[in-house]
Amino acid sequence: MTLTLRDAFLDQAARTPDAHALVHGDTVWTYRELELRAGRMARTLAARGAGPGTLVAVRLPRGPEPVAALLAVVLTGAGYVPLADDDPPDRCRHILDDCAAALLLAEHPSRDGRTLTPDEALAPARPFDAAPVRAGDPAYVIYTSGSSGRPKGVLVEQGALGAYLAQARARYDGLSGRTVLHSSLSFDMAVTSLWGPLVSGGAIHVLDLKAIASGTQPPPAASARPSFLKVTPSHLPLLGLLPDSCLPTGQLVIGGEALTGSALGPWRAAHPDVTVVNEYGPTEATVGCCAYTVRPGDAVDPGAVPIGRPFAGTRLYVLDADGEPVAVGGVGELHIAGDQLARGYLGRPRLTEERFVPDPFAADGSRMYRTGDLVRERPDGDLEYLGRADGQVKVSGYRIEPGEIEAVLRGHAGVRDCAVVAVGEADARRLVAYVVPDPDSPPGTAAPARHAAEALPPYMVPATFVTVPELPLTPNGKLDRDALPGPPAGDAGPGDRTPAETLLCELLARALGIPEIDADADFLTSGGTSITALKLVAGARRVGIRLELTTVLRERTVRRILAAQPDAASPLVEGVPE
């Protein structure tokens, strides 16, 4: 029998009460201490109405506190709704209203009647009678991008989460050691690194990998090297900037977007003894339901790495447009059935019925989920991911509906029409917005860009905005994506520069892999990514220029970066390191 998350954690805590459960800097909590802190909050939440069948939202900055807060929700039997700390207020308000969360655990106090800080929620340390949890009760709601212009909540039940964690515990023995928790808790990739260790006897190490790579935070000690790490393919370049104390000794699990052997090659060459797992699964199938394992010494072709075969309890079908199975080697849409299916989309019965359809191959009346992903079965039985059948795109591991971004942009008075597309591959993949301006509005894209940044989470804000007089259409009136102009590459050239600007331009060009770049060129429109920004910050610090990663990502040109941090280049060490 599969245990619910609450029972699995309590069982583990009873067996290893003095083992480390959570580490963040100098903070170290044992299982006993974590259970005690979460239990104190759970008593207050339960007294305020949290329990099986209800939802509690959590919005807290990175650290140990959100782990304790989420566990507190779990202990009450309620489902949790994780909110990203950097999400715009309007998006957070929409999610809170949409999920009708009874309570919100947040960093700052409020008089709205439902918000509590973790300290306010701490009750005296006394046991409380938690209501029984059933497999069909909500475990969590994760919000993903929605084509209607608003995010949609995927409701995952306790039984589905328990089934995934049972598989993770059986497949990933690194979870019983040290696991790095680095991704946003609002991204379901974090489920593995958050709950996997706590039901396996392992310890969560909360790290900010980008801050460590940029040199703004010290790395952990070599003795704290993790045994397990989960990332997206877009994180692979970041791993090359990190010290070994941040990198796994046992398993590197990769998911969220397509993985190629060529992208994986440098990692495997540098870490030949680490097992790599390519895990596939949409949010609607509870994190991951299919995997392909690359063991030390296995050969990997430079092309697509297979997504492998289904987990126990999961059924995968490759079907054509008529719902018929496709022969081996043929291309079809992947459909998922089995223990890990989500209940559906919260408050959206019509959309749920469209995507979660009856399984004609099962006699028990169960459902299957239409993923919209195109796959084919190889002769050896492994599945290979080929891309999307619809308009969704994957950028940095996040599944994004361009229609949601377009709906936000069309809400700005200066935008008559727009189209958002993803360009580039792997870690260089980025969003580009093509904007048809309103003729009565001021020219330029600065105002629509600000509007997008205020309304969307950072990963959904286009890196580049391009003004076009009109959107190109096909003869049948649809957007002709192939006819859209390429995004500007930025003017490359020395121009008039200060010594610090010259040095930073050389470092930035090296990070971009281009001969040179102008001090006024936007590095994102020149093909850069957040990884490029990390390389620039790390390289600049080696020559005495102390940049902040947030400044680089916000200002985006060498001249604006240095103008925003006028003291960064003093004192300046001459020369550029090889």
TrEMBL record:
GO MF annotation terms: phosphopantetheine binding
GO BP: amino acid activation for nonribosomal peptide biosynthetic process; secondary metabolite biosynthetic process
GO cellular component: cytosol
InterPro entries assigned: AA_adenyl_dom, ACP-like_sf, AMP-bd_C, AMP-bd_C_sf, AMP-binding_CS, AMP-dep_synth/lig_dom, PP-bd_ACP
Keyword Phosphoprotein recorded: yes
Pfam families, sorted: AMP-binding, AMP-binding_C, PP-binding
Entry keyword set: Phosphopantetheine, Phosphoprotein
NCBIfam families with a match to the protein in the record: AA-adenyl-dom (TIGR01733)
Protein name, as recorded: Nonribosomal peptide synthetase DhbF
The organism of origin for this protein: Streptomyces mobaraensis (strain ATCC 29032 / DSM 40847 / JCM 4168 / NBRC 13819 / NCIMB 11159 / IPCR 16-22)
